[in-house]
Amino acid sequence: MLYRNRGAAWVRADGTRIEHGAEFVPTHDELLRRAYKLEHAGPAGGFAPDPAPLPDTSCDVEDYATGHGWYLIDGRKVQGREAAEAALAELRGA
Predict the structure, then answer these.
(1) In Å, what is the CA distance from 72 to each residue of 16, 64, 67?
(2) Spatial contact of 64 and 87, defined as CB atoms under 8 Å apart
(3) Nearest 10 degrees: CA dihedral of 82, 83, 89, 93?
(4) Terminus-to-terminus CA distance in the chain, angstroms?
(5) pLDDT higher for 41 or 32?
(6) Whole-angstrom distance, CA of residue 1 vs CA of residue 46
(7) Helices in the chain by DSSP H: which ranges?
(8) Element (DSSP H or E) covering residue 54
(9) Which residue has the higher pLDDT, 35 or 71?
(10) Rg (CA), the chain
(11) Lowest mean pLDDT, pick from 32-36, 60-64, 89-93
């Protein structure tokens, strides 16, 4: 199948250049690379797709760390991350 380069000139693996507007028959590897780039670059408007939302870390157990494995949660000292996570879950009502 014949393709036309609609973007900037690029160099093939064998060193030949494909200029803007040139028609060419792409190799299988070139098709895979172009498909990957199009998938991760977003629509032709130049905008990348929105990144995945970041997890909510506003109540992370590390926010309560006081050092050396101790955490201060709701006015009480808790030792160990697992215990702090359990106390924080209890405080949230989970």
Answers:
(1) 64, 5, 10
(2) no
(3) 160
(4) 58
(5) 32
(6) 26
(7) 28-41, 81-92
(8) none
(9) 71
(10) 27
(11) 32-36
Do 61 and 37 contact (CB within 8 A), yes or no?
A: no
Considering the chain, what percentage of its residues have pLDDT values greater than 70?
73
* Number of residues written out for the chain: 94
3-state secondary structure of 72: strand
How far are the Cα atoms of 24, 36, 63 from residue 30, in angstroms, in the given order? Answer: 11, 10, 48
| Confidence band of 45 (pLDDT split at 50, 70, 90) | low
Q: Which residue has the tokens 């064998």?
A: 14
Residue listed under structure tokens 């991350």: 81
